[in-house]
Amino acid sequence: MIESKGWEWDKANHSPWLKPTDDVYYLANKWLELGYKKILDLGAGLGRHSIYFAQQGFEVSAIDISEYGVNYLKEWANNEKLDIDVRIGDMVALPYKDKSFDCIFAYHSISHADTEGIKQVISEIERVLKQGGEIYTSMCSKESWEFTKSGYPRIDENTIIKKEEGPENDVPHFYVNREDILSLYHNFAIDRIRHIDYCLLNGEKTDIKHYYINGCKK
């Protein structure tokens, strides 16, 4: 299993990562209606989703391997007077008790692993999620240019290492197809899987594809 490596946030433009992604507004309403309260923001980054969930009244725990990201979120939460449990840690060994959370949100985070690592991450998600609790996560698609044509070095049949200037240099990226997802999440009742093609992003043509997965622990 390859060693985990976080984003180098000091090399990133922060502005795109400070506003919640669209799906969070839907999920917050859905999870409140279901009576969920305790959320883990897994791979929280700078904390945009942790802040939003806390503002909606959830009990939020946030974890990221980046010390920069953790410190940024702590300061942001303090300025907003929000009580968020923020920790630095590795997603392959989560520092939480079994069945601690009603739901786990992992946006563009758990794919930063190799094949062995992703299996360990999903095992940890299962461990800390309550029975019947929900997950929402994203994973990189094998149809993306980065996986099919970029020429980035591969460390196993599903994983590349990004080699480019910026915050993701040397960060592993694990890629899946639909069958991979169903196999990896066999202990979950999957409600929906969406496959989204970002053919234009921030005004620039791209060939980036992601899966978005929502389901509950059996």
From TrEMBL:
Coiled coil segments of this chain: none
Pfam family, one: Methyltransf_25
CDD domains cross-referenced by the UniProt entry: AdoMet_MTases
InterPro entries, per database record: Erg6_SMT_methyltransf, Methyltransf_25, SAM-dependent_MTases_sf
Lineage: Bacteria, Bacillati, Bacillota, Clostridia, Lachnospirales
Full protein name: Methyltransferase domain-containing protein
Domain Methyltransferase: 39-133
